[in-house]
Amino acid sequence: MEYDSGGAARTHAEATRQAALTIGREVGHAGIQGWAHEMRAWFALTTGDMRGVISAADAGLAVAPAESVAVQLLAQKAKAWARLGDRRQTEVALDAGRTLLESMPYPENVQNHFVVDPGKWDFYSMDCYRKVGDNQISETLAREVLRAGVDFDGAERSPMRNAEARITLGVVAAREGDLEVALAYGDQALRGDRQSLPSLAMVASDLGAVLTQRYGSDPQAREFIQHMRSLGSR
C-alpha cells in the first residue's frame, strides 16, 4: 500500500481511498465502499486516533455487513478497543469477527490482501491480547503465528506477521523480567524484511514502552529504544 511507504505517499493513499469510496458509491458496490472505510480505519490506527478507527469501522460495517471486508473492519475495531483499554469491547469485536469469518468459505488465495483467513485472524487477536495485557493468550497466539509463518527450512512465509509475533514475544518476556530474551526477539523483528513501517513501528513501541518503564537504565535497552524510535520517524 502507498500509505505503508510513509512520507508523501500517504497523501496519495488518502486520495486513492477517496476515489475508491466515490466509485463504490456510484456503482453501488458495498465491498469497495467497505474497503475504503477499512483504509480509513487503518490510517487512524497507525496515527493513534482510536475513536477514528471505531468510527470508520462502524461506517464500513453499515454499508458492507456481510462482505468479507466486514471481518477486517471488526479486527480494526477490536484493535482500537484494545488500545483504549476496554477488554470487554475488544472481545465483543473479536467474537463477532470470528463468527463471521467461520461462516464464510475458506479463501482460495490466502495471500490476497483483501481476504481474511483463520491464520490472519490469529495474528489480529494476538495484537489485541498483547495490548490488553494478557501475556498467556498473546504468547500462545504469537507462537501459532510463527508456526504458520515459517517454512520447515526456516524460510519466512509471512515476514510482517512474524516480525510482529516476535515483538509480542519480546513484550511478554520483558513483562516477565527476561530482558535478554526480550531484546533478542526485538532485534530479530527489526532485522527482518518489512513492508509496513507504520505497523511495525506501532507494535515495536509496545516493547519500547515496557523497556523504558522496567529497564530504562540498562544500556542495551536504551539502545533498542533508540533504534525503535528511529524506525518510527521514517
Low-pLDDT parts are: 1-8
Count of alpha and pi helical runs: 11
**What can be said about the biggest beta sheet?**
none
N/C terminus separation: 16 Å
Number of strands: 0
* Large-scale geometry: globular
Radius of gyration: 18 Å
Name the features:
disordered N terminus, 11 helices, mainly alpha
Question: What features would you describe in this structure?
Answer:
The protein has 234 residues and is mainly alpha-helical. Helix content is 74%, strand content 0%. It is built from eleven helices and no strands. The chain has helices at 9-27, 30-46, 50-63, 69-83, 87-102, 118-131, 135-149, 159-175, 179-191, 197-215, 219-232. Helix 1 (9-27) runs antiparallel to helix 2. The longest helix has 19 residues, at 9-27.
Summarize the structure.
The protein is mostly helical and 234 residues long.
SSE order and pairing:
Blueprint: H1 9-27, H2 30-46, H3 50-63, H4 69-83, H5 87-102, H6 118-131, H7 135-149, H8 159-175, H9 179-191, H10 197-215, H11 219-232
Helix pairs in contact: 1-2, 2-3, 2-4, 3-4, 4-5, 4-6, 5-6, 6-7, 6-8, 7-8, 8-9, 8-10, 9-10, 9-11, 10-11
